[in-house]
Amino acid sequence: MRTGIATVPLDYGRCPPWLFERMRTLGRGIALAIVEEFGSEELLKRLSDPVWFQSLGCVLGFDWNSSGLTTITMGALKEGLRGLENELGLFICGGKGKTSRKTPEQIQDWGEFLGFPLEKIDELVYASKMSAKVDNTALQDGFQLYHHNLIFTKSGQWAVVQQGMSEQLSRARRYHWLSSNIKDPLAGSEYNFIEEPHSGIISDVKVKPLNLTAKESDENRKISASLVKEEPKRFFKDLKSVLSKSN
Fold this sequence. Notes:
Distance between the termini: 40 Å
Largest sheet: 5 strands, antiparallel
Radius of gyration: 20 Å
Shape: globular
Strand order of the largest sheet: 1-6-5-4-2
């Protein structure tokens, strides 16, 4: 399941170069210590915890409660671990803005470097795309994604840290995923990205989303899937009938 959500004020400033350098250096040291003591899967698990992640950003020096904590912390970790990925067994793909669109390409490059079978690479790319699609579309809460990272280990476990913004609310919302939490027990090794991916929400902004990931939305999802398979003429005829009755 998705491991949590955090909502913070939206900012438009830049991180000072001297601070980013310190965050990069300290982030590398913390990551090395955790992996050496507990393994790469443990670091993956901690990054998927919204409270731990928020604390990490503050410890690294970005102690503003704002959207920049997500993008700068992940950027500092990615740069800090550059060249150490194979040694640590931890690979960070994606980033902010245009870099987020390079996530599939970066997954492909690392997967080929590690000798992953094509099926495993495709699975990681699918996880990246589906987690983004769910938070952008299935959970219609008014936040548009602009930052996306998929982090994975040599064993194929993965986590996602991504963030959306609402300019209307002047807020950013961060979403966390962990692969081991969305395994579908009824489908063996398959992942269930759709139903109840959240395990917790941390937010100072209350909105009423159209949440198609809720268990209560199961019938809604089935009907929606059925409707898109119908002939357009029939669909619009039924829609017109419903609208006329509502008026």
